[in-house]
Amino acid sequence: MKARVRILLIVVLSSMGILMLPAIPAVARDYGPLDGWDRTAPYSTYQHWEFTNPDNPLPEEFHNPFGEPYAVPAEGEWQWSNEWPCPPGIEDIPGAGVCSGWHCSDPGGGKFVIRIPNNPEPNLYKRIFLQITSSKSPSDVSVTGQGGPGGYTSGTFPTGRGPVQEGPPAPPFPGSSWYTYNYGLIVQPNPEYEEITIEVPYCTVIDQIVVDTECIPEPATMALLILGGTGLIFHRKKRK
Ligand SMILES: [Ca+2]
Fold first, then answer.
1. Where is 210: in which H helix or E strand?
2. What distance in angstroms lies between residue 50's CA and the mean position of ligand 1's atoms?
3. Nearest-5° angle of CA 193, CA 195, CA 199?
4. How far apart are the first and last CA of the chain?
């Protein structure tokens, strides 16, 4: 009898454990946060824009205790479209074979802006992990991040993940392909919100954007050490 009770307890506790695990969204092309990041931690945020309709700014999925994030075309001519062929398994609607997203039709290129609300607290800084799927390779795209009042861009960190060239079919532009790539940005000091600007050339389709942010509760000295390291990397790159 005791053994049966014990087994029952183990089964019940195991089920609770499974239920308490953070929900992992089943969205294709989200390659997930970096190792050690918890999307549901008190000082973490997560937002995923699939652009399944032109009604963003709100993402299709998000966890942000500090407010509502938004993503909008900011400069240049953009149109929302849902006609772009994309590889099986990464469609916005499984089996549909098409990706929906924002198309920059401006010959001079365009800018897309994301704003992520945050809870500013002293002695913290922010790490931002950004994933983008677009019809252009990362070498054509420029990304910058900065904080709201009291925050500024202070550097980048290596994510350890390379870009992924997604399988065929490619978008209907000569020389195009679908790519998913990522950036690691550091904003310090810990701002009220982070604003990320994505600058793209003519004829880019942005299919999806995933943003994870994390407050690092380390002393400012640790941040300075990292910033020092980042500065050194920039300095070395410049000298090449
Ligand atoms: Ca999409």
1. strand 204-216
2. 4
3. 175
4. 74
CATH code, 44-239? 2.60.120
Name the helix (H) or strand (E) containing 100. Answer: strand 98-104
Q: How far does the centroid of ligand 1 lie from the alpha carbon of residue 215, in Å?
A: 28
Cα 101 to middle of ligand 1, angstroms: 5
Is 35 exposed, middle or buried (CB count within 10 Å of its CB: 0-12, 13-18, 19+)? exposed
Question: What is the CA(149)–ligand 1 centre distance, in A?
Answer: 31
- Chain segment 64-92, per-residue pLDDT in tens: 999 999 999 999 999 999 988 988 778 88
> Cα of 27 to ligand 1 centre, how many Å?
11
Tens digits of residue pLDDT in 28-60? 579 999 999 999 888 899 999 999 888 878 899
Q: Give the separation between CA 2 and CA 174, rounded to whole angstroms.
A: 70
Residue 51, classed as helix, strand or coil, is: coil
* Contact between residue 171 and residue 84 where contact means Cβ atoms under 8 Å apart: yes
Give the distance (Å) from ligand 1 centre to CA of residue 3.
52
Domain-wise residue ranges, the chain: 44-239
Cα of 32 from ligand 1 centre, angstroms = 17
Peptide bond preceding 189 in cis form (omega within 30 of 0): yes
